[in-house]
Amino acid sequence: MKDPHRQGRPSPVPRVLAIAGSDSGGGAGLQADLKTFQELETYGTCVVTALTAQNSLGVQRVSAVPATLVADQLESVLADIGTDAAKTGMLPTADIVAAVASAIRRHGVDRLVVDPVRTATAGTALVNDEAFGALRDILLPLAALVTPNVPEACALLGVREDEVRTLDERESAARALLGLGPRAVLLKGGHAAGDECVDVLVGADGGTRFFAAPRLPTRHTHGTGCTLAAAAAACLARGHSAAEACGTAKAFVAAAIARAVPLGRGAGPLWHAAWREPGIRGSAPRT
Ligand SMILES: Nc1ncnc2c1ncn2[C@@H]1O[C@H](COP(=O)(O)OP(=O)(O)OP(=O)(O)O)[C@@H](O)[C@H]1O
Ligand SMILES: Cc1ncc(COP(=O)(O)O)c(N)n1
């Protein structure tokens, strides 16, 4: 980003900004993002877009933060601390999407990861249709990387989910998403069938990469999407390429799922500190 107040001096630590909703249960949203940033040895800042009353069983209540307050938070962070990368999660209204796009442009944040959050795993809508359309039209063209799951990819493209089943169909869908303007697309495979979770990366270099990891037999996967996108943003802030960032992010999320904790009566959260354990990074996916 343009960082006039640093006058060309590098930041003492990589900085990453999360622009997302709060999850009171601590498993997804901003809470997952900040834990991930810390584990990957980056300094995390956060702009709150929504408050949710949420736990392992689902989302009980959602309240959007006024767009002007989102804009003020963005200005407070970016005009002083600055950032080396940013990541968006839950952007509940079109006004909030517009405020985010405007700040990203004005401050020249070019390492932007957009996680096109739409509904919680439990099915509750987190974002209205107008906001999702605004994200597609004005935020995706600013993204270095967008990380949809299969239902989100289908909603962005306006196609049915049964048209995006096989790996070839997922690769074609990822390529079609490049047409919406992001520089790279990681189409996640958590929702696809099979013994492996295969994520497909297509990017500006024209190539395709597959990141595969065994599908872990657990229901404690609350916050996987947020964690993956946050880890990718932390890696971009460290100066890694999109492909390197996706490889590390996949390994990070796999390790955190392997050590997920059965808290609450429903889908429990990941254990982000798994990354510190000797040997756990050995669960790195094949690429
Ligand atoms: N059971 C699992 N075992 C291993 N990896 C998984 C599992 N479920 C999801 N993943 C991986 O976690 C990451 C997030 O994928 P997923 O498709 O679940 O995203 P998402 O639906 O956006 O997540 P969320 O459930 O947080 O909304 C991907 O890298 C995916 O391959
Ligand atoms: C604030 C917030 N942001 C994102 C998600 C999506 O995560 P998941 O699909 O795992 O519920 C969520 N539940 N809450």
Automatic annotation (TrEMBL):
Give, as in the UniProt entry, the pathway in which the protein acts: Cofactor biosynthesis; thiamine diphosphate biosynthesis; 4-amino-2-methyl-5-diphosphomethylpyrimidine from 5-amino-1-(5-phospho-D-ribosyl)imidazole: step 3/3; Cofactor biosynthesis; thiamine diphosphate biosynthesis; 4-amino-2-methyl-5-diphosphomethylpyrimidine from 5-amino-1-(5-phospho-D-ribosyl)imidazole: step 2/3
Q: Which family does it belong to?
A: Belongs to the ThiD family.
**Organism lineage:** Bacteria, Bacillati, Bacillota, Bacilli, Bacillales
| Biological process, per Gene Ontology | thiamine biosynthetic process
Residues in domain Pyridoxamine kinase/Phosphomethylpyrimidine kinase?
23-270
The EC number(s) this enzyme carries: 2.7.1.49, 2.7.4.7
Molecular function terms from GO: ATP binding; hydroxymethylpyrimidine kinase activity; phosphomethylpyrimidine kinase activity
**Name listed for the protein in its UniProt record:** Hydroxymethylpyrimidine/phosphomethylpyrimidine kinase
Q: Which reaction does it catalyse?
A: 4-amino-5-hydroxymethyl-2-methylpyrimidine + ATP = 4-amino-2-methyl-5-(phosphooxymethyl)pyrimidine + ADP + H(+); 4-amino-2-methyl-5-(phosphooxymethyl)pyrimidine + ATP = 4-amino-2-methyl-5-(diphosphooxymethyl)pyrimidine + ADP
Q: Which keywords accompany this UniProt record?
A: ATP-binding, Kinase, Nucleotide-binding, Thiamine biosynthesis, Transferase
